[in-house]
């Protein structure tokens, strides 16, 4: 005898009711979507439910195509398997998408209800940095090309405009942060406060005097420094491994640099070379004490590659002891370039030392030069011009 739990039109049947997603109602409130599956018996009802879920997984549910369902299918089945994209690019696309697009109201909307105005409003109110917005726009354009090719939607992503903040300023309209002269004096002169075995002393010194990216610093080997010259030719990356329906996991590894201009040779001053010699002696003792081997200058006490966030957490404790504001490791890079500008180093030279593709990115750091020094520079130009005219 077939088991039933419901009566439809006077006939016994089996009914399964399930929440299969969310939508935005007429009042703009996100509400659950409920669906009913009915069969002659439990087995038939469950089979209908299974068939629906399989169709829903690829964005075809017999009614509306929901943005989030189709997007997830495209991301994992197409974008992550695209041979024309580098692994680093795929990771950046996924990370920005997960951070700013997934879990938004856009994901719960039927694709047919998303208009140009809807997408533009989404961009305008996202509050992401310029670079993240540009990345999201690239992914969105790829996704909508796919939708158009599959006949699911018109490619409205080509008609949106990516909003931009004032170049060189952060999201609050402030210049990029740099360490002040007083803060640098405290940081470089107070390592004893951090303890006898402060692992990051030389890392801080190297970051300040070379302006290298932290990903480049953590990939440096002893053999990369020869005759006072540091060769930058690789970087450490935190590579994401994406698996659908599972929590994203990460692994540390070494990779090539982002651009050709990032490959460079940097002369090291006496302060860095002296600190390097001290660091190598300390590291040899640390390797013997903890029983690990490594060719890298900076590793954990087990010889593993560092995750930059662990270093920043440790440095935050150091900054607390100094009574200064917490700032990220990239602040050393900004400070390096700003101080080069303050010292009168030509922007073309600063750009090469920074590993920038051109002087446009380097020029952003001139906004951090104090007003007095800008005025002195203007007066110096005036004096030089007067001398030329009178000669």
Based on the model shown, name its key terms:
391 residues; alpha+beta; DNA polymerase, domain 1; hpI Integrase, Chain A; 3 domains; three-stranded antiparallel beta sheet; 8 strands
How does this model look, in words?
Helix 3 (87-100) crosses helix 5 (130-149), helix 7 runs antiparallel to helix 9 (270-290) and helix 7 crosses helix 11 (330-342). The chain has three domains: 6-57, no CATH class; 68-159, DNA polymerase, domain 1; 181-377, Orthogonal Bundle (hpI Integrase, Chain A). The protein has helices spanning 42-57, 67-77, 87-100, 116-124, 130-149, 181-189, 201-210, 214-217, 270-290, 308-322, 330-342, 347-354, 359-363, 371-390, and strands at 6-8, 11-24, 30-39, 225-226, 229-232, 235-241, 249-255, 264-267. Helices cover 45% and strands 13% of the residues. It is of the alpha+beta class.
Short description:
This protein has 391 residues and is α+β, with helices and mostly antiparallel strands. The protein has helices spanning 42-57, 67-77, 87-100, 116-124, 130-149, 181-189, 201-210, 214-217, 270-290, 308-322, 330-342, 347-354, 359-363, 371-390; strands at 6-8, 11-24, 30-39, 225-226, 229-232, 235-241, 249-255, 264-267.
């Amino acid at each position: 005898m077939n088991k039933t739990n419901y009566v439809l039109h006077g006939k016994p049947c089996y009914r399964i009711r399930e929440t299969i997603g969310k939508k935005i109602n007429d009042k703009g409130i996100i509400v659950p979507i409920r669906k009913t599956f009915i069969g002659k018996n439990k087995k038939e009802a469950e089979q209908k439910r299974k068939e629906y879920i399989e169709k829903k997984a690829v964005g075809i549910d017999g009614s509306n195509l929901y943005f989030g369902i189709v997007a997830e299918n495209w991301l994992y089945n197409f974008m992550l398997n695209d041979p024309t994209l580098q692994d680093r690019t795929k990771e950046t696309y996924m990370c920005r998408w997960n951070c700013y697009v997934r879990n938004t109201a856009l994901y719960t909307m039927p694709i047919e209800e998303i208009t140009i105005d809807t997408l533009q409003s989404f961009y305008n109110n996202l509050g992401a940095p310029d670079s993240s917005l540009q990345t999201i726009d690239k992914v969105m354009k790829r996704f909508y090309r796919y939708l158009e090719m599959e006949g699911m939607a018109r490619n409205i992503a080509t008609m949106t405009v990516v909003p931009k903040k004032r170049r060189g300023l952060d999201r609050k309209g402030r210049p990029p942060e740099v360490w002040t002269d007083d803060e640098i004096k405290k940081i470089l002169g107070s390592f004893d406060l951090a303890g006898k075995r402060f692992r990051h002393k030389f890392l801080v010194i190297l970051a300040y005097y070379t302006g290298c990216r932290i990903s480049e610093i953590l990939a440096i080997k002893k053999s990369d420094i020869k005759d006072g010259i540091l060769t930058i030719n690789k970087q450490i990356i935190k590579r994401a491994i994406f698996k659908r329906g599972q929590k994203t996991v990460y692994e540390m590894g070494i990779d090539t640099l982002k651009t050709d201009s990032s490959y460079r040779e940097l002369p090291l001053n006496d302060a860095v070379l002296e600190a390097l010699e001290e660091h190598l002696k300390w590291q040899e003792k640390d390797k013997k004490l903890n029983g690990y081997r490594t060719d890298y200058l900076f590793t954990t006490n087990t010889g593993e590659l560092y995750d930059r966030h662990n270093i920043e957490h440790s440095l935050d404790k150091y900054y607390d002891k100094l009574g200064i504001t917490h700032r990220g490791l990239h602040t050393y890079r900004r400070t390096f370039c700003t101080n080069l500008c303050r010292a009168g180093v030509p922007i073309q030279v600063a750009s090469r030392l920074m590993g920038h593709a051109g002087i446009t990115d380097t020029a952003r750091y001139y906004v951090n030069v104090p007003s007095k020094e800008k005025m002195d520079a203007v007066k110096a130009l005036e004096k030089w011009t007067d001398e030329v005219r009178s000669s």
